[in-house]
Amino acid sequence: MNAWLITGGAGFIGSNFVRMAHERIDAKLIVLDALTYAGDLARIDDILTSSKVEFIKGDICDTELVQSIFKKHQISKVIHFAAESHVDRSIFEPHAFIKTNVEGTLVLLEAARKAWGDRQDACFLQVSTDEVFGALGPDDPPFNESSPYQPNNPYSASKAASDHLVWAWHHTFGLPTIISNCSNNYGPWQYPEKFIPLMIFNALEGKPLPVYGDGLQVRDWLHVEDHCEALLTILEKGSAGETYTIGGNNERKNMYVVNMIADAVDDITGNPKGTSHELIRYVKDRPGHDRRYAIDSSRLQRELGWHAMFVFEDALYDLVGWYIWHKEWVDSVRAKDYSNSYKKQYGDI
Ligand code: NAD
Ligand code: TYD
What we know:
The mean pLDDT is 97. The chain has helices spanning 12-24, 63-72, 87-92, 94-116, 154-173, 195-204, 224-237, 254-269, 298-304, 312-325, 327-346; strands spanning 2-7, 28-33, 53-57, 74-80, 123-129, 177-182, 185-186, 209-212, 218-220, 222-223, 243-246, 251-253, 280-283. It has a domain at 3-186 and 222-246: NAD(P)-binding Rossmann-like Domain (Rossmann fold, 3-Layer(aba) Sandwich), CATH 3.40.50.720.
């Protein structure tokens, strides 16, 4: 049976993608994930028993394992999500980022090259980020497929390096690759160290809401299901050797998002209005903090017909409800590794 190899499929975006692909695609889904602190099978436990899904716990840096997967299965597509993904952690512990994001991508590219030879009907889709382009000034146009790479932190540098490898494997060896560079995602199953779920949970628990610097940094938020739709569209209609930028056209300042979350939490839990706003604390800025990201996805819309469906404000309100319903899951992932890294990042606030 035709198979897709999905790396990092137990993570935030990967798990949403596996679920969507399971519903839509007639292929076996091989999910390869090391289950680091950020990976959790509970995200996909509803489909793990499906005969279409096979889960393999393993590291993408393990050459023997990765090659054995290509030998055993007729892999026609690789959708490469597996990565160390949190900027703050990359500042404390850059080595893991270089190892997984750069070396792991190399292992996958080499395994695909060996297995596919000159085959052009396959596809290696590198799921990357807008952060590889660096930071925008307030009046700059959004990033697009022609934006130069200028990564500013260890995470974005490691993703940029892996994008360069993917491009080189296409250019030099003819490997059929596509790179997608997406803006910040939000939605169900995000690990609660990232901005939106962290603010939701701290507000729900009456803990401080730590805003870095002046809180006027801008991110272009895209719902994770819109991102997964975009990836399926690219896999279906995209061309090898191309890059596609994916964004939500939802540029919002961090303070605006925190205020929205505070309002939503108060509204849904019945707190007196303004209760959660009192939890906001301005804390030391992230070193090298990129001021603004934004993406122009008009090419993806024009050429491949993709459009984002979610309205940010509505979906963010609903997301607060989702996290309340999934508090047990959040508690279980936080039990693994959360308090040490939280203390390292935020001290005693
Ligand atoms: P995540 O941290 O939630 O998940 C990463 C997954 O990769 C986890 O399941 C983890 O266990 C797995 N993993 C880590 N190291 C591994 C290794 N060595 N071998 C095998 N598995 C390993 O990340 P995410 O937010 O779902 O991001 C997925 C991908 O999308 C990343 O490549 C990231 O750079 C990219 N991306 C993320 C965003 C965003 O806003 N989250 C935006 C654009 C692009
Ligand atoms: P994050 O979710 O880490 O994504 P990225 O840095 O990859 O864009 O952070 C989103 C924004 O929120 C970013 O500008 C940093 C800011 N932020 C805070 O102000 N406080 C926090 O506690 C966190 C985690 C992030």
